[in-house]
Design goal:
Mean pLDDT: 95
Distance between the termini: 45 Å
Largest sheet: 6 strands, mixed
CATH superfamily of the largest domain: Ribonuclease Z/Hydroxyacylglutathione hydrolase-like
Number of helices: 10
CATH topology of the largest domain: Metallo-beta-lactamase, Chain A
Protein name: Glyoxylase, beta-lactamase superfamily II
Strand order of the largest sheet: 1-2-3-4-5-6
Organism: Thermanaeromonas toyohensis ToBE
Number of domains: 2
Radius of gyration: 19 Å
Low-confidence stretches: none
Shape: globular
Length: 306
């Protein structure tokens, strides 16, 4: 299912939703298709399990050729389908962080790490197939590529005209009609200074006319405002988590996570809408929210803040 996000004199921008056959996994994973005189670009491709939906959407949009595939990072839910997608579009050139190439050329270690971190969710997403060396490219014309580590060490964001594609550098977003939900994407290993530095780098590049396009899920006008809110949220989490965790021992993490969930969904205005989410989506978000909390806790403990 593709949503036309914007039209311009030489093309269109589409958000392709990739709903999965798992409870709550809708309005979650998106792939961006940019059709312009500069070429046909696909930003993130989703997991291998979603490839049939992606191919169907590209066919509906009359895409018979892809010039470039841009990967914000190589987690399975963003890049897992890339190797198999190239079997249908062998001409496409792939842009990813140079240090991530080896993991796409030989994805064995990437797959093993994914299974360790995600467990059965990795098997649900499906294994990633190798990307041929000749398909990689160092840069893409008309695309400003920005290194934005934080959510992942090899994370990139892309700026094309007045559209900023941030992957998970600014967190996870969901438009609720009246207001929106925004949570940090801070799984282990997380480093606050690195994530803040990436947001600062993006803030220097955008203005009030820039729209922000998320990997999870959707888009919003006013990229500068959203980036500032995401930055403030990271510092807010540091304050709330640090205060809450001081009375807990490491072996009490399960109890601490329950307390933190309550504290954050009450005191973080960007999370207050958590309990207005559809119950299935809420359950999905609870899983990933706890993962983000574990990353933040690990960071604070390494700094002896709690």
């Amino acid at each position: 299912m593709a949503e036309l996000v914007s039209t311009f004199s030489d093309g269109e921008l589409y958000l392709i939703e990739l709903p999965l056959k798992r409870e709550g996994f809708r309005k979650f994973i998106g792939s961006w298709l940019l059709k312009s005189e500069d070429g046909q670009f696909l930003i993130d491709v989703g997991p291998a399990v979603a490839l049939p939906q992606l191919l169907a959407a590209l066919q509906d949009l009359s895409v018979s050729q892809l010039d470039y595939i841009l990967l914000t990072h190589i987690h399975l839910d963003h890049a897992g389908g890339v190797g198999e997608l190239l079997q249908y579009f062998p001409e496409a050139l792939v842009l990813t962080h140079p240090k991530a190439r080896q993991h796409l050329q030989n994805p064995t270690s990437l797959w093993e790490a994914s299974v360790r971190v995600l467990g059965d969710l990795a098997y649900f997403y499906g294994p990633i197939k190798p990307v041929p060396t000749q398909n990689f490219v160092d840069q893409v014309p008309q695309i400003n590529t920005i290194e934005t580590p934080g959510h992942a060490p090899h994370h990139l964001s892309f700026l094309w005209r007045n559209f900023l594609f941030v992957g998970e550098a600014a967190g996870v977003y969901l438009d609720l009609g009246q207001g929106f939900y925004l949570r940090p994407a801070t799984p282990p290993k997380f480093f606050l200074e690195t994530a803040i530095g990436s947001l600062d780098a993006l803030l220097k590049l955008v203005d009030d006319g820039t729209s922000i396009c998320f990997g999870h899920f959707g888009w919003a006008p006013g990229a500068k405002r959203i980036l500032k809110l995401a930055r403030q949220q990271l510092y807010r989490w540091r304050e709330i988590i640090t205060a809450a965790c001081r009375g807990f021992q490491r072996q009490e993490e399960k109890e601490l996570l329950v307390v933190l969930m309550d504290e954050l969904t009450t005191r973080d205005p960007l999370l207050e809408s958590f309990y207005r989410l559809d119950p299935a989506i809420q359950q999905r978000e609870r899983y990933f929210l706890e993962n983000s909390l574990r990353g933040y806790l690990e960071y604070l403990r390494s700094r002896l803040f709690c």
